[in-house]
Amino acid sequence: MPFPPTPALTADCVVFDQAGRVLLIRRGNEPFKGQYALPGGFVDIGERVEDGARRELREETGIEVGDLNLIGVYSDPDRDPRGHTCSVAYFARVDHADPVAGDDAAAAEWVDDWRTHKLAFDHARILADAERRREDS
Amino acid sequence: MPFPPTPALTADCVVFDQAGRVLLIRRGNEPFKGQYALPGGFVDIGERVEDGARRELREETGIEVGDLNLIGVYSDPDRDPRGHTCSVAYFARVDHADPVAGDDAAAAEWVDDWRTHKLAFDHARILADAERRREDS
Questions:
Q1: Do B83 and A1 touch (CB under 8 A)?
Q2: pLDDT tens digit sequence for B67-80
């Protein structure tokens, strides 16, 4: 590709259930190994960002969602200790579904006390923004 | 960087003036050389997307803006004939400012009949989305 180097592009999903729980994974790899995180990962070349978000969600949790709503774009150069990434974050709702951990996720579960956990990366900020957007919508 | 290859990250700006005109550039380079386009370009590693949007706007038009409002994320793999790019688009308002073309821009001007022009890339779609967002806000 003839393009200059740019931050690596990732997509993350905030999925709420009807009880207000959030679908989180336990990271299987460094950085933040073992910590709760939003399902997500790197967008492939040739893949729309929304499709990357759905693919990562499916691979890590087995869950499929309907509409994806844009929360925001998170590109602080220090957000990932490995290097500069830019995450596009979406929220979605599901009635109920049982997650099955896969790919980079050591576990995948509905978490009700997510505010009390230390989340990987800037995912606490993304979740707080998602909650505000959910209340507005 | 230890990251897999991802789409190249760009930022574009829709700037409206009080008369509803839009700040457009004439592209100085291929692709779409000579066509109207939104000011924008590639985000540098180490730079937040919003900062990249402001830098490209300043370099191409000489104009500084206040708040940037997220319009959306545009990542169709075919949106750029050179390869897969993902653009984060913002809108902003300025009271009045005289643009000065620079960098990749052969010209920079306020355009009132922008709906009648064929714009580069998917910029017509971005502009239509921006107009809806501007009416909502």
A1: yes
A2: 999 999 999 999 99
